[in-house]
TrEMBL record:
The keyword Kinase applies. The gene is Mob1a. This is MOB1A kinase. SUPFAM superfamilies: Mob1/phocein. Zn(2+) binds at residues 78, 83, 160, 165. InterPro entries: MOB_kinase_act_fam, MOB_kinase_act_sf. The lineage of its organism: Eukaryota, Metazoa, Chordata, Craniata, Vertebrata. GO terms for molecular function: kinase activity. It holds the Pfam family Mob1_phocein.
Length: 215
């Protein structure tokens, strides 16, 4: 039996914590405070005097945690049987490759794909040479391209949830939560031009709708 309240606290992978007292923690608090104001376009902008890499790093960790939680609420509906392919509607199908362990893209079920994807993201976030948590440790030269790949892949989890599991999201009354999270994500990647438009195609109509409401 589901203990009340346990569903929302169930994450798919362990939450990635930003150490309290660190500068990144302050940035995260800043992001949360501006989000609270309700103006998402403003909330995603680089705070004055801050390092762009660090701002992108903090937000990437935050989006990983959000998607982790959102997907965690619907894992029981996303199964080998219900989702034998990782898709976002009939026109988009994703095959997994991480370039190291799996070089040639493989077809796999959505739960398997998302497990690979979230584990891969977690490994990147835990890599101190890519996402340094210590003050003064510089970001690597390839940080931006790593962040772009992470965000491109996280987008696919939103796309799968919207296309294949939105009815479950509605039943769980999570749609406001999903929409707010996705809108924040989209405004963020648009602000810094982090995901190629072609990659966003599966949710293009929704993205346009979210954007037009906000002008």
């Amino acid at each position: 039996p589901l203990i009340s309240g346990s569903r929302s606290s169930k994450t798919f992978k362990p939450k990635k914590n930003i150490p309290e007292g660190s500068h990144q923690y302050e940035l995260l608090k800043h992001a949360e405070a501006t989000l609270g104001s309700g103006n998402l376009r403003q909330a995603v902008m680089l705070p004055e005097g801050e390092d762009l890499n660090e701002w992108i790093a903090v937000n990437t960790v935050d989006f990983f945690n959000q998607i982790n939680m959102l997907y965690g609420t619907i894992t029981e509906f996303c199964t080998e049987a219900s989702c034998p392919l990782m898709s976002a509607g009939p026109r988009y199908e994703y095959h997994w490759a991480d370039g190291t362990n799996i070089k040639k893209p493989i077809k796999c079920s959505a739960p398997k794909y998302i497990d690979y994807l979230m584990t891969w993201v977690q490994d990147q976030l835990d890599d101190e040479t890519l996402f340094p948590s210590k003050i003064g440790v510089p970001f690597p030269k390839n940080f931006m391209s790593v962040a772009k790949t992470i965000l491109k892949r996280l987008f696919r989890v939103y796309a799968h949830i919207y296309h294949q599991h939105f009815d479950s999201v509605m039943r769980l009354q999570e749609e406001a939560h999903l929409n707010t999270s996705f809108k924040h994500f989209i405004f963020f990647v648009q602000e810094f031009n982090l995901i190629d438009r072609r990659e966003l195609a599966p949710l293009q109509e929704l993205i346009e709708k979210l954007g037009s409401k906000d002008r």
